[in-house]
Amino acid sequence: MPTDDLPAPTAGADHTPAGAPTGPSGPPPPPPGDRSAAPSEPPPADAALPPHTHGAGPAPADAPVPPVGPPVGPPAHRTSRPSVDRGADATVAPSAHASARPPAPPSAGPTVPASSVRPTVDPALPPLVSVRDLRISVGGVEVVRGVGFDVHDGEVFALVGESGAGKSLTARSLLGLAPPGARTAGSVRLRGTELVGARRARLAALWGRRVSLVPQDSLSALSPVHPVGDQLAAAVRSVRGVSRAAARARAAAALDRVGVPAARAGAYPHELSGGMRQRAVIAMATVNEPDLLVADEPTTALDPDRRALVLELLAEQRAATGAALVLVTHDLDAVRDHADRVLVLYAGRHVESGAVATVLERPRAPYTAGLLACLPTAPRPAAGRSRYLPTIGGAPPPPGEPATGCAFAPRCPAADAGCRARTPLPRPVDGRDVSCHRAEHLPGAPGELFAEAL
């Protein structure tokens, strides 16, 4: 089947898009049970797509597959994007802004691991993403409660917390996605464009061009009825409008960069291993170089060595394109190794946020300290304490529980009556923002709060 004639991937009972919400000029209607559903209100038939500051208009309504890359021209604030040698991709038909990039310097000396590359973030520039007082209700129950943060060009921003903390809902709001029937309030701005309340057509103009999604389940993210190489090539054509040959070459180069051999480009998703499929969805997410990658627990169900490989691949692609990365994960070691800043969530609320080195090395919120104390790599407890791994007793509150007081107070060893009576708000403490009344009164090693006495 010719690449440009591919229909939008729709098969699969829980088909989740790879790289971005999928569809011709936006994603197809999500199948039943898909929690990544876009806002339910369809745009009017004559809805015009918003003007595009990148110089490329949105994909036509009959585009074969969803956009999974950035606009053709450079964004207004992407001034710190690194210049890189794109290797095989150099033979691909260049995008409209390729000539604006300076040539990469010749390689010299040993290769620096991609995860160690940290682009310079200029706080004076407007943030790429700005989230303010984000609130998401599902079934009338508020599950994300007043979260706010910024993400700057080129940085890695991690969202961590227990299952049910609201990480994935918060991350997917950066694409304008929410579960069916959900209501979103507050503000989410991507390069100045408000996503909360935006019509589907406006969101479709951003998906793939400015923001792409790397989902948890690579098997359901890819269409089962088309080879992965054809899916990438069709995605390129839907965004860039290049020839079939140029699209195939660009797709092959993207797959090669993530370690998928050219011979496997003709394979169907079910014919690839889990690790190989995850590489393919990373290639699809980055093939058109969006401004922002949202990786929603991309290492789920992978064994440890594959998890490390996928995280390194994400770091390499981010370093190569200059994209910012929002990483949703339970893995605090991965956050320490790959992220620049971190936001800890609990029961849909902000707990602690700041630079990774500050938050993870000297936590000032008991919940953050408890998460770190439970790691096998945590320092040994002081004398007189059990050598068993500490645990955080109890369980998170069920969704919909009244919001008065600190949600973590019933499980917190440092809580007092004031914690149960007043809801803590984010405030600056010791170089980070903390939502805790007791932040200044914790022991020097807060993790000791959770170590059991002998």
From TrEMBL:
Residues 24-33, 61-74 have a biased composition (Pro residues). It holds the Pfam family ABC_tran. Residues 46-60 have a biased composition (Low complexity). Residues 1-122 are annotated as: Disordered. Its main location: membrane. It is a peripheral membrane protein. GO terms for molecular function: ATP binding. It is found in: Cell membrane. This is ABC transporter ATP-binding protein. Residues 129-372 form the ABC transporter domain. Belongs to the ABC transporter superfamily. Keywords: ATP-binding, Cell membrane, Membrane, Nucleotide-binding, Transport.
